[in-house]
Specification:
Helix content: 40-55%
Strand content: 15-25%
Structural class: alpha+beta
Largest sheet: 4 strands, antiparallel
CATH architecture of the largest domain: Roll
Radius of gyration: 32 Å
Number of helices: 9
Strand order of the largest sheet: 4-3-6-5
Number of strands: 6
Shape: elongated
Distance between the termini: 46 Å
CATH class of the largest domain: Alpha Beta
CATH topology of the largest domain: Chitinase A, domain 3
Number of domains: 3
Order of helices and strands: HEEHHHHEHHEHEEH
Length: 260
């Protein structure tokens, strides 16, 4: 019933005078056309048309009209705050309808989706992702000592990470950060990763806001770009939002706006 009330409040519809009357409240008719259009709105929202739904809608329309008449009789509709709220609601309905009309007339076609997908894929270029291990410690001296031990093979990188790294996530896993693009890391860390060849360990500890890192790049590979089918819903929604932004911008640019 709450959904009925919300939808009823959001819709302002005009109906022919000759429509069949199914009820009246204080002499004001409720028509079969009104009922049908209200039901159609609910069906669009996922409801199932049925005699029970139609009776529910009919009773909701009667009760709302009773309440509207009572509000008008009490002069509530003349209150400035109520009039302002009604005007804002009217504007909101018109804006939503305008945008819906624009999107209906300018659909995101499969051709447009493919073109945007190809553009984004091309813009991603030769991006790589790296399989990285790191050891994080608090001070430079400790980092330098550990790095020297690793290079002299007195301790393995994995054991050094497990025993000394203060990174709670990767330390217990031998410093393993898994596969990720460098955009996932802070700039200092990312720059160091990109400078290292496959299998190499940083020559010097790298400082970041978190402390001092010893970094090892175990492997690298091109970032696998997702197939269009896998991202189609998200891409379509993004393009629809872009269309709305561009449409609103165009409306503002073409309007005669004066501000004090």
């Amino acid at each position: 019933m709450k959904r009925l009330a919300v939808l009823a409040a959001a819709c302002a519809l005009a109906f022919p005078l000759h429509a069949k009357q199914i009820a009246s409240v204080n002499g004001e008719a409720i028509t079969d056309d009104q009922l049908n259009q209200f039901v159609a709105l609910l069906v669009e929202q996922g409801a199932q048309d049925s005699p029970e739904l139609r009776e529910q809608v009919k009773q909701e329309m009667i009760h709302r009209l009773v309440a509207v008449h009572a509000a008008q009789k009490a002069g509530i509709d003349k209150r400035p705050a109520v009039q302002q709220e009604l005007e804002l609601a009217r504007q909101g309905i018109l804006v939503r309808a305008l945008i819906a009309d624009h999107l209906e007339k300018n659909p995101v076609t499969d051709a447009k989706l493919q073109a945007e997908y190809d553009r984004i894929k091309a813009a991603s270029g030769e991006r790589k992702e790296y399989k990285v291990r790191h050891i994080l410690v608090e001070d430079q001296k400790q980092a330098e000592d550990l790095l020297a031990q690793i290079k002299s093979k007195k301790i393995s990188f994995e054991d050094a990470a497990s025993q000394h790294s203060i990174d709670p996530g990767s330390g217990k896993n031998g410093g393993d950060l898994g596969w990720a693009p460098t955009s996932n890391y802070v700039p200092e860390f990312a720059k160091a990763v990109e400078s290292l060849k496959k299998g190499a360990t940083s020559e010097q500890p790298v400082q970041s806001q978190f402390g001092w890192h010893i970094i090892k790049v175990e492997d690298e590979r091109p970032v696998e770009f997702p197939a269009l089918d896998a991202v189609k819903p998200q891409l379509e929604e993004m393009m629809r939002q872009q269309q709305v932004v561009e449409f609103q911008k165009k409306l503002v640019e073409e309007a005669d706006i004066k501000q004090d």
